[in-house]
Design goal:
It is a single chain. The protein has 257 residues and is an alpha+beta fold. It has 6 helices and 12 strands. A 10-stranded mixed β-sheet has the order 1-2-3-10-4-9-8-7-6-5, sandwiched between helices. A two-stranded antiparallel sheet has the order 11-12. The protein starts with 8 loop residues before the first strand and ends with a strand.
Length: 257
Amino acid sequence: EADESRTTFGQIEKSESFNFAQMSYMGGFDYPDNSVVALILEELSRFAQEWGALGVLADLPEHSSLFEGFRLAGFTIWARQSVYVFPKIPVEDNQTGSTWREYRSVDKHALSRLNKKYIPAFSQPMVPLSRKFEMRFVAVSLKNECIGYADISIGTKGVWVQPLIDCHDNYADLLTGLSAVIPNPTNRPMYLCTRSYQPQLGNYAESVGYEKVESQLLMVKQLVMREKVDQREIKSLFEKGSIEGSVPLTQSKNKPS
């Protein structure tokens, strides 16, 4: 609280199945003070560090007035994403060509391969392979090979669809089929999220008339950092003829928030 008339607040959360905490929201201001925003973020990051989180993630609108406060608090951009509204497609036109089915545990290795193929190594820790509380569909080719997946979140105001699809396959058939298999009995708006590490998907969505409604910055504040062990320690380990039971060649150290 800056004074009785100016209160700024925020919320952070972390699930047990994911190593990163996530900013939920910030509010309470008409004209945010960057230094106040940074102080709140640093305090929330301290809680995340106590929970054992490797970092804190935040999704900001591309031209958010909060960006400078996040930057002052140590957040950096790790990817960008665009959000589109699914066009209205009659169900009878897309049911027959659907190649999607619900995720099974046997799909884990195939999904891991897709992540490693399309998501940059730096960004992979921020993209969880398995979300226990999410719905997921897998796209399967005629050869029964996994060629894509889509994470689905269903809320009161709409359905969030975040796919990763092999760029060598037909986006039109896959996205058309995907809109048919997602349960949406109340006909909520469906939003397609595409990320900068797979630009072909966003280019396709725009070319066939998907309506773009928002661009967002995906930001992260790292709470741990990788540091190399002193070279003299490494040399000493090998001179002893064995490194069994010794310290690792790289270590993780807490980074002050």
